[in-house]
Amino acid sequence: MGYEPAQLCDCGKKVPRWLSWSPDNPERRYYARVDAMVPTTGGCGFFKWHDAPTTPFLCQLLNDLRNAA
Ligand SMILES: [Zn+2]
């Protein structure tokens, strides 16, 4: 939660920032409510990418680096 400026969700709460490591979006930051995947807890399901979409070239490069580690 230690980032600025704060990203607010639809209910006006500060949203945690996460780092994606999925093959399609390696090392791409995004904002999501902790309870976004659990609608029953009353989360608003807020989700937003921080970084622009990863280009296919960069995506391949990052995945190669990750697999080589
Ligand atoms: Zn919300």
TrEMBL record:
PANTHER family: ZINC ION-BINDING PROTEIN. This is Zinc finger GRF-type domain-containing protein. It comes from Brachypodium distachyon.
